[in-house]
Every structure is written in C-alpha cells, then in structure tokens.
Amino acid sequence: MKHRKMPVASPLGKRSRQQSKAKKVGAMMKGERQQDYNQNNEERPFKYNAGDRSIGVEMSQSASVASAAAEFIIDGERRKSNGSMSRTYFRRPGERPAFLVLRDGLGERSVHREESGTYPAGPCLIRGEEWLLGPELAGLYAGWMSCADEEQAERILQRIFYRLRAAAAVLLESADGVWAAVALPYTPELAARPARLAALQDAQLEALFAAVAESQRLGGDSRIDLLAPYPASATEFAAMREFIEGVAEQTLGHAYAATCRIGALLRPDVQHAAAGEIARIADFLVLDGAAGEAAPEESAAGSFTAAAAGVLAAVRRVKPAAAVLAAGAPAAYALADLYQIGMSGIFCSAAERTEALLRAACLTWIARQDNIDAAAGGWQ
Asked: pTM for the full model?
C-alpha cells in the first residue's frame, strides 16, 4: 500500500494567518447558510420556482426520456421471475398495469431463447391462418378446400396436420415459444363452410398440443394460450372454449386443460353487451383491428379507437381487472389514444414495434412526470 506524502506548509506572516482565519470563518458561515437552504428544500420536495424548472427541463429532459425509453424497452422485452406467475394476464389490485407492446405475427422471429427464468412481458400473437398461407402449407390448404372427395380430403387434412405439428414445434423451440397466444384459423372462406372450419381448427389444436406434449417430455418450458376467433356472443365463445378444452384434455390430460388460458379475438363492431358477457368467461380479450374493413390509416385508427373505448367500458363494468389488448395496423397507429383510454397494450408487427415501443415509453414518462407533479402539489 502506498503512503501519500503530507503537504509541507510554507511559513506565513501574521497578516497571512489573519486572512486565512477570516476566509475560514466566511466559509463556515457560507456552509451554515447552505445547510439552512438545503433543510428548507428538504421540507419542500419537488417544488421549484419557474426559473429552476425551465433550466432543469432543458438540461435533463432528453436524458430522462432516453432513460425511460431504455427502461421501458428492456422491461417490455423480458423480465426475470422464479415462477410461472410472471406469465399471467392479471395485475395486482390498485396498480396501473404496464402498457404492453407485443409482437403480432410469425415474421422475424428470434431463434435464440433468453437465459433460464427470463420471460417476456406478454405473449406473441400467432394467427392460425398465417401457417396455412406459408409456402409449405398453401398448396395443401388450397387442395383441401377445393377437394370434393371426402376420403381424399381426409388424407390431405392428415398431411396438413403433420405440417402444422412441425410448425408448432419450430415455434416452441424459438424465443416466441416461451409464451405465445395462438388464434385458431378463421377466414371468410372457411366461415362459409362450418364443417371444414371445425375440422381444420381441430387439426390445428391437436397439432399444437402434440408439440407441447413433446416439448414437455424433453423438459421444455413453453406456454401456449388459445384465442377463439370472433365469437358474436357468450354462447358462441362458451362452445368454442368447451371445444378447445376437450381437445386439450384428450391430448395432454385434465391438468393441462384446466390451466390452459383461453381468450377471445373480437371484432371492433362486436356488440358491447356481448363483449361484457364474453369477458366473464374469457381469460383475456384481443380486439382485432385487422378484422375491420380496409380504410385509410388515419380514419381507420380513429374509428378503431372509438370502437375500442366502447368495448373496453363494457368489459370493465363487468370485469374491472380484465386484460384487454388490441391488434392490427389501426392499433399501432392509435397507440396514444389506446393508452389514454386504459387498454392493456397492443400487438403490432415487427416493422412497427420499435416505433411503438418508443411512443409508449414517452407516454409512460409523461405519466410519471404528471404523477410527480400531482404528488408535489404542482410546480411553483
């Protein structure tokens, strides 16, 4: 250990010693005044005059926004937990839930998982019809839909099942497989043929649960939630839920079926009373802006926000803690309005997500500043 040399004092005259003493006394008095000033400030936390505030804002605003954005994005990507409760749609009583910005779609998926015990802030939304439109399934699906021979159609459906199971296995091995919400396939073409729709949804459910069973056998920690597409009433959703739980129980057993989270994918024009009744028996809701008619982006976002506000109010009257998210391009465009009305979050494409995260971070930062102002009794 090195020892520092003490400074050697040079000889001073009497006058120098007096000047030094005077300076010391002055410094002590200044220190006492500064201490009194600090004590007064401690009695008035977060209260500054207008000049202090303007200077502080100019010096710290950009750094604060950047810090909030970084914190929001990191928290939005992943969080650590020792248990499965980190993957839940419920919030603690009295808390304002975090506004989630989650991925919608299969594109640009990371194949690398985070370290063990790290979970995403919410699920990735996978639409069942996306798999059907992929290069490996599009031809089979088109052939199955146009096939008039029932035996041949059954053989094609079996091949579709194997492809869907392989696609589900790839999903579970990826980063999105930690927590994914999969909407059962639904298209207008399928809706016009209820028997085909039910057969295809059954095949996809069986493929998903078979992939989950294999993942669990190998020690995987994946979670798949299901979304029943576009129920118009609580009766329709209850039938869909019973159907999903039945396939889950046959494939994975009663214990898994009892814990499987099942939500509803709703159209923006769903009847408010129906949305409230569906919310009673759904684990979560997703309001799908992609289900609306094509319209210019700005007007679509405006009408979607108005629809979302009505549905959200109806749901929260029945189930105040319900998780209600939005999806589709209108949701990303109307993010600020959806944040203000109290939506739980949005699903958006990979191309839209970076901008959406930054916008959500700014909104969160502004809300924090408003809370600080309110706690301090306002700026002075």
From this structure: 0.73
Secondary structure (3-state) at 262: strand
The Cα–Cα gap between 91 and 93 comes to 6
Local structure of 76: helix, strand or coil:
helix
Strands 118-119 and 79-80: antiparallel
Which two three-digit tokens encode residue 295? 């319209």
What is the distance between the alpha carbons of residues 17 and 4, in angstroms, rounded to a whole number?
A: 26
Cα–Cα distances in Å, from 148 out to 140, 143, 153, 203, 371? 14, 10, 7, 19, 64
Cross-strand bridge partners of residue 326: 287, 346
Separation of alpha carbons 318 and 145, rounded Å: 40
Which amino acid appears at position 136 of this protein?
A: E
pLDDT for residue 276: 97
202: amino acid identity, one letter: D
For every residue of 287-328, DSSP letters joined together read EEGGGSPP--HHHHHHHHHHHHHHHHHHHHHH-TT--EEEES
Per residue in 112-166, pLDDT (tens digit) is 555 555 667 789 999 999 999 888 899 999 999 999 999 999 999 999 999 999 9
The amino acid sitting at 289 is G
Q: pLDDT tens-digit profile of 52-104?
A: 333 333 333 444 444 445 445 455 555 544 444 445 555 444 455 678 999 99
